[in-house]
Amino acid sequence: xxxxxxxSTLTTVALDTSEFKKxxxxxxxxxxxxxxxxxxxxxxxxxxxxxxRILMGIGxxxxxxLGISFAVLxxxxxxxxxxxxxxxxxxxxxxxxxxxxxxxxxxxxxALLQRFQVDLxxxxxxDVKLDLAPVDEERKAVGKRKxxxxxxxxxxxxxxxxxxxxxxxxxxHLSAVEHLQKRRRTGRGSSGKTKTKTKRKGxxxxxxxxxxxxxxxxxxxxxxxxxKKAVRLPPEVVLSRLDVAQDRVSMRALLxxxxxxxxxxxxxxxxxxxxxxxxxxxxxxxxTMMLLSLYQVLGATHRKAxxxxxxxxx
Length: 314
Known about the structure:
By secondary structure, the chain is of the alpha+beta class. The chain is 36% helix and 27% strand. It contains six helices and eight strands, in the order H-H-E-H-H-H-E-E-E-E-E-E-E-H.
């Protein structure tokens, strides 16, 4: 069996949107080109959902205005029908919130696969699991507690897991986790009215790992003490963990103070003279810098390894 035939047995069918809508989780094992095609289809699906929600919102407002107009004219039956239609559209608009996918999530995966495509093994598929359901979905809740006067609910959303293999045989694993905390407090104000206050805060953690053959990188575990010197990250990104073992290196980073404020890829200026407006966190750039830092750690083993044919110093 040829490499192409082996690869075809591992791939899955194209994106089934009806199945995807049941869970809003995209999971596949396929070549990069096929995954990119699926992500493009997700973008199209997302655009349609956004337009449908816009139309439902506009329709609800228009029917409400018409209902008020006919009520002024004492056309009660027609007015009631228009009000009912407006309310129905508003309910549909609210319930369809989950269909409006978070663009930056599938956008980040697409940006990274496009960037790494030339370096990935052409004969090996990539494994992708992309969760596009809302971060505060019930299945992602991890606990409720009382924080002072606030009722707090915590969510942990491991929304991305990507496995691949580079042409040099190195195995890549990338994951992303978003943590969200929702707080709610109800009390009486100075006017005596009952008021409810809410707060949201969160963070996003990115983790990149490389698994290698120990014989290709002898003494990798010995680089643990100096590995941090090889790390190069944007100033707003915080290194939270760096692990070095005999057959792997991995790094975890926090996207700034408010890790939920990031974009998939920084847009390029339309013209050279146009000033570049930098978003707070370019996630694709952060992942690329994390990956390059890990390769720097791997490269240090060759720089420190003794030359062949020479005895090691005593």
